[in-house]
Amino acid sequence: MTPPPRKAEALMDAEVREKIHLEILKRTGAYHANDHILLPSGHHTSEYIEKTLVTTEASFTEGLGAVIAKHFAPWPIDIVLSTGPGALILSHCVARAHPSRPTLMYGTKGVSGGKRRVTLPVEFHRLIRQGSKVLVVEDLVSSGATVRLLTELVEGLGGQVIGIGALWRRTKKAEIDGKEIFSLVSRDFPTYPSESCPLCKKGVPLNQEFVKRREHRKPSSAQEQS
Ligand SMILES: [Zn+2]
């Protein structure tokens, strides 16, 4: 392996890479910036990501998946586990590009009794063996709750989560319970209640497009962004 780059260089590289990734997400139409957006929660923000649009350009997704795979290439991986169907296209691209040729599987998300639930289809259970090395892939990591629940499931079956590959990390911490989150973009955008929104104060018109669009959808397919 080549020696690790010096810290300043590594930071600059990370910054440049992040800019490129943001530009790619802008091209897909998924990432909106410099706007004044109404969120489903009622809060306002200047940036927004429409998760559904992230993987609409197949060649871009392949490139982004390859970056995640390259990062985790030094580790042998048996399984790439998508947190849900939403992250499955990206997960496929990660699995395809990883030198270990890992198996690909996915969890399913849902809510029951007001609590967030994550399950792993029972057919996948027998593919996770004692000591199986698992790379979890998520599109957007916010609280990390889904990743935690999936990790518990994997560990319950005797597997071991090596790390988390993500498109976007909104949390400040680059790890979950000691497991590294490698994300293509690490960025949190502030959201404001309308009373204290600086964009409202400046008189910038409010874009309600995303909330309107969401009202046409079923609640279960709605994005979780606050
Ligand atoms: Zn506002």
Describe what this molecule looks like in 3D.
The protein is an alpha/beta fold and 226 residues long. It is built from seven helices and 13 strands. The chain has helices at residues 7-28, 58-71, 88-97, 122-125, 145-156, 198-201, 209-215, and strands at residues 31-32, 37-38, 44-45, 48-49, 79-82, 103-106, 108-112, 115-119, 133-141, 160-169, 175-176, 179-186, 191-192. The strands form four sheets. A six-stranded mixed β-sheet has the order 6-5-9-10-12-11. A three-stranded antiparallel β-sheet has the order 2-3-13. Helix 3 (88-97) links the parallel strand 5 and strand 6. Helix 2 (58-71) crosses helix 3 (88-97). The radius of gyration is 18 Å and the shape is globular. The protein starts with 6 loop residues before the first helix and ends in an 11-residue tail after the last helix. Zinc ion is lined by residues 36, 44, 194, 197, 199-200, 206. Zinc ion (ZN) is lined by residues 36, 44, 194, 197, 199-200, 206.
Bound molecules: zinc ion
Query: What shape does the CA trace take?
Result: globular
Strand order within the widest sheet? 6-5-9-10-12-11
Note the run of SSEs as H and E: HEEEEHEHEEEHEHEEEEHH
What is the arithmetic mean of pLDDT?
89
Radius of gyration: 18 Å
Q: Note the total helix count.
A: 7
The unreliable regions are: 220-226
Largest beta-sheet details: 6 strands, mixed
Oligomer category? single chain
Count of DSSP strands: 13
Helix content: 25-40%
Hey, roughly how much beta strand do the residues contain?
A: 25-35%
Q: Span between N and C termini?
A: 42 Å
**Structural class of the helix and strand makeup?**
alpha/beta
